[in-house]
Amino acid sequence: MARSHVNSGQKLNLFGRSQWPKVEVPLDFISPEPRPLTITESTNLGGFFTASTGLALRLATGAFVLGWKVETLFSPEDGTYALQLGPFRIRDSSSVLEQATRPEEVIVLYDNESSPRCKRVREMMNLLDITYECRPCFGPYMYNLLPCIVDPNVDKTILGDENIIEYLLEQYEPPTSSYDPKALWPITFEEFSLATSQMAIMIRGSIGMVQQSTARPDNASMKPLELWAYECSPFVRPVKEKLSTLGLPHTIVSCSRGSKNRDRMVDKVGRFQVPYLVDANTGVEMFEGAEIVKYLEAVYTHH
């Protein structure tokens, strides 16, 4: 008689099919204390260095929204975001994006973390301050089809980075007379963008090209996790890579400098810091990139 092989973490349902137990918060989990812009004892220093090098290679593309400007050096403490530097409370914003169409429903990006073409699209999302859902895809066949976006606001599916970038600008760009078009060239200059993106990915070890072997098989069916972040932050990079290698759908709430989402976070949790993770599957909300990576590894893998 053939013997069925079931992983110790699996159970059998009424039809004899294996199913995985519901995800749960680890028993020893304690939400870490937020420590903004701090390299903690849990931080992988080598990883932080390579992520910072990638930021430099891409000229910090995506760190600022389109039309970014310093609004005031002495912002009052009124419950909105401002960067405290000594006696200064620097508030930045973008009046340019206030003139742009905003997507009402979340755009879905089918993505591979190690693809330079996908990276261009993620950076453009940040530049335009667009919140989007990322669905990791693996395998050579899918890799060649990526990136792909589905925009439910206009019922459109677009393939290819050049087509997607052109579409995003056409649909969600502010009036071209309101900003300097040179702000787009690190993304729209295709040869430079692809070459530097590929270098930034390679020095990180091309993480995300394949799915982690210990990822739960049901990760793709999980509710999307929510990550408040922006593409080029070295504090964010390990978290984004871990979400992708585990095959977890996740919504990126873009938080580049000048983004209105910085005010939203202050209103929501009383402070601003990225990365910030909200896990709808367990109810966990937490800061601190290195600790988020440990949490994701504990909850969304099998051993």
Automatic annotation (TrEMBL):
Residues 109-175, 228-300 form the GST N-terminal domain. Pfam families: GST_N_3. SUPFAM superfamilies: Thioredoxin-like (SSF52833). Gene3D superfamilies: Glutaredoxin (3.40.30.10). InterPro entries: Glutathione_S-Trfase_N, Thioredoxin-like_sf. It comes from the Eukaryota. This is GST N-terminal domain-containing protein.
